[in-house]
Amino acid sequence: MHTVVVGTSGTTPEDVIAVARGNAKVELSAGALDALAKAREIVDALAAKPEPVYGVSTGFGALASRHISPELRAQLQRNIVRSHAAGMGPRVEREVVRALMFLRLKTVASGHTGVRPSVAQTMADVLNAGITPVVHEYGSLGCSGDLAPLSHCALTLMGEGDAEGPDGVVKPAGELLAAAGIEPVELREKEGLALLNGTDGMLGMLCMAIADLKKLYTSADITAALTLEALLGTDKVLAPELHAIRPHPGQGASAANMLAVLKGSGLTGHFQEEEAPRVQDAYSVRCAPQVNGAGRDTIAYALTVAERELASAVDNPVVLPDGRVESNGNFHGAPVAYVLDFLAIAAADLGSISERRTDRLLDKNRSHGLPPFLADDAGVDSGLMIAQYTQAALVSEMKRLAVPASADSIPSSAMQEDHVSMGWSAARKLRTAVDNLTRIIAVEMYAATRGIELRKGLTPAPASQAAITAVRAAGVQGPGPDRFLAPDLAAADAFVREGKLVAAVEPVTGPLA
């Protein structure tokens, strides 16, 4: 099994996904263990001094003015974890919790937190044992870190609270640690605070959303090409020279993808052979590269932010190489929250243009010769009428999810923490948006492939035919009388979600961007 080595210089989005989704093993580098030990020496030296140091010998947040005597400091660290593990609502997905734990370990291993090497090793051991703390939906404001979610993870390290075992069964965390041969940690100065103070949850969800959206945007290019073909549109608008004069990288990539899918099509170019010749295709068809491409460029920007955050050590206070322990505001989630919201906006617009193309395929007044709703016997059959309703409902929710969470703030901790990022909320709604977008693209694919098959006497592009053949082999049925539609839509969703649409066409087109 693949092993991810955690060092002092950050990590990659691919590493996050390998641990979160692929159950990759985690190993601390020798450099990380050395950095942990050196930083701990600094914390221990400060703890022995009479002067108060935030997080080492004081309370937290609005209670930071109280100096805590040495005999109460272990209790202080336990108490911050127990009191902050205050999440409510449904359980968060396993992959999100694993990303959360891994990214906190990444920051701990940077040597800027003052956590003992033994605590970091326990964090790695829990991940490697497949033990996943129970984390709840609500509890993070995206400032001072993802406090409640990270607290539930720290609670598991202490052998308290509930966690899911490698078999998927939820049990008391102490039982799971004992079964795996892992000793619960006894937290010392600063360690409880250091385990809670990061943007790890929102960052983990950002990394996974970027990976998912990259695949979806390629699928969206393919479905847009299939719809253009089904509508007998023109591929001349995809010519490289047209996109070179507006050199947004994503736009050029999307146009190139669509052109590759349509190569050799016998359906394109008929738009001027009708009774009322079209001079040009509708915006939803003609402007697909511009909209898809803008989303691609948004993903690229979000990836830049994610990579910067992955190279960061987010904690408060932090241990600096010169021996100082300094308070700071690096835990504020604004950089991550903004791009999470930005991605939700781009995804909503992609869903919107996809739905408009689907509606055009189903409307006999705009589909250029296709039967109403792509039905077998329109009137007796309703065809894909209600599939578009479902798609429209998903698009409508996407628009609601595009309202930025990061534009909101609510004061907390007796006004000490008076401006927060809401980055966790931005990440949670983006995950829903990505799920919805997958379904929206699947509906367009379903309609477009049916539309192409209804163009009797015209030969689709080889890549389009490969897509249709693969879709049908996956259990998504073609044209015919009305039938129970939900299973077809579920199969189409799975086909897109699992990357099979891209896999079907790339043997013909070559690798797509």
From TrEMBL:
<dbReference type="InterPro" id="IPR008948">
    <property type="entry name" value="L-Aspartase-like"/>
</dbReference>
<keyword id="KW-0963">Cytoplasm</keyword>
<feature type="cross-link" description="5-imidazolinone (Ala-Gly)">
    <location>
        <begin position="143"/>
        <end position="145"/>
    </location>
</feature>
<comment type="similarity">
    <text>Belongs to the PAL/histidase family.</text>
</comment>
<comment type="pathway">
    <text>Amino-acid degradation; L-histidine degradation into L-glutamate; N-formimidoyl-L-glutamate from L-histidine: step 1/3.</text>
</comment>
<keyword id="KW-0456">Lyase</keyword>
<keyword id="KW-0369">Histidine metabolism</keyword>
<dbReference type="InterPro" id="IPR022313">
    <property type="entry name" value="Phe/His_NH3-lyase_AS"/>
</dbReference>
<dbReference type="Pfam" id="PF00221">
    <property type="entry name" value="Lyase_aromatic"/>
</dbReference>
<dbReference type="InterPro" id="IPR024083">
    <property type="entry name" value="Fumarase/histidase_N"/>
</dbReference>
<feature type="modified residue" description="2,3-didehydroalanine (Ser)">
    <location>
        <position position="144"/>
    </location>
</feature>
<dbReference type="InterPro" id="IPR005921">
    <property type="entry name" value="HutH"/>
</dbReference>
<protein>
    <recommendedName>
        <fullName>Histidine ammonia-lyase</fullName>
        <ecNumber>4.3.1.3</ecNumber>
    </recommendedName>
</protein>
<dbReference type="InterPro" id="IPR001106">
    <property type="entry name" value="Aromatic_Lyase"/>
</dbReference>
